[in-house]
Each structure stands twice: as C-alpha cells, then as structure tokens.
Amino acid sequence: MARKEEIIPQNNKPEQMNPTITKKRGKTTENGKLRGWPLEIGSKKTLEILGEPK
To answer: Where is this region: Disordered (predicted)?
Structure first.
C-alpha cells in the first residue's frame, strides 16, 4: 500500500482537503476498477475506505 502513496494523483480535486487522501484517491479514481469502487465515490466514502482498508 505504501506504493499508492508515492503515486502522483491524476485527478486532484479541490474537495480533497487531506493530501494523503488526495493521493490515494487519485490512484483509486483513475483506476476505479482496480479496487472495484465506482468513480462516483466522494471524499467522505474515501475517508471511510482509507480508515478501514479491506
């Protein structure tokens, strides 16, 4: 998972206030089907996902 933090976010959205979340969400958003999450997932959902990795 440490590798995801090194990846530069392609879709850097202003709604993301936490840089760490922005980086991780950038990878997730760009390749949504990588984890099977829809691209429509917002920052709140991302917070929950990052809080409880499965």
So the answer is: 1-36
The amino acid present at 40, given as its one-letter code, is E
Backbone φ/ψ region at 12: left (φ over 0), alpha (ψ -120 to 50), beta = beta
Domain ranges within the chain, ordered by starting residue: 22-54
Neighbours of 46 (CB within 10 A): 19
Q: Residue 44 has which token pair? A: 């709140």
Q: Which two tokens stand for residue 49?
A: 């996902």
Q: Is the pLDDT of residue 48 over 60?
A: yes
pLDDT of residue 33: 47
Whether 28 contacts 34, CB under 8 Å: yes
pLDDT at residue 41, as a whole number = 52
